[in-house]
Amino acid sequence: MNLQKLKRYYTCGAVVQFEEDMYNEFKGHRNLSVEELPPWTQENKNERASRRAVSRSLNAFLNTGKGGTVYLGILDSGVVRGIKMTQFQMDHVVGGLDDLMQRYSPPVTKHRYRVKFVPVFPEDTTEEQRQKRCQKESVDNVDIKDRLRPHQYRSHNFCWCDKDSIAQFNCGLIATDYVVEIKIKPWDPNDVRNQDVACGSLAKVHPYHEDEEGNVYFRRQASLIKSTWPGWYFNNARTTDGDHDIFIEGLGVYNFEKPKDFFYILGSFPIQMYI
Ligand SMILES: [Zn+2]
């Protein structure tokens, strides 16, 4: 009997059993930051841009405090397409995400997110073929030295890893398709790693992060809300252990320019909270 744990995978063309909601967002591309969006997706002045950076959704999952997962390679309709990626391109996604999280204000520490590459197989492959393929690690085929080459983040131009992938394709080597699952973990006020960035044990409220453009997003069911200073925190301050709105009395100051200022005041001001 094979006791090895069966690996998870997706089937190309299948529709996933869940929908976009408070905790799940589908994206057909892997443009993480706003600079990675190709200009042709942003150019039509009369209509909404046809593509939005993944960053907004991650920002919203962080700011809602409840976490959530963005699935790259699943279309809005829930159909699995996958994204072809070599090991170098997967490294690029991981490094690009770390780069993006460091650009948030305040920066997001690594323990608050996780990336998984889940393979996508054609419908006509057998379970045995899939499991066999899952056991093979894509890192086995590449040189560690090549993996240390720096990638070009924050750009819509091809990085060396993309050019390498095209060269491989032209030689008949087809990369595996993946769904990239980027999970933002729910805010845990008791995690000691969170205590530096939280706004004090008094409030137990998770921090709010500005994205790479200085915007703050929140998740509302399957959509995003962009908030502006200074009104957002009154509408959005919530406890991390429930859905109760928090009313903060005694702040009396409305001209916070940045969340940092707000947290500074929240951490040092004698406030009263009603939950
Ligand atoms: Zn790269």
UniProtKB/TrEMBL annotation:
Name of the protein in its database record: Schlafen AlbA-2 domain-containing protein
PANTHER family xref list: SCHLAFEN (PTHR12155), SCHLAFEN ALBA-2 DOMAIN-CONTAINING PROTEIN (PTHR12155:SF41)
Domain of life: Eukaryota
Organism: Pinctada imbricata (Atlantic pearl-oyster)
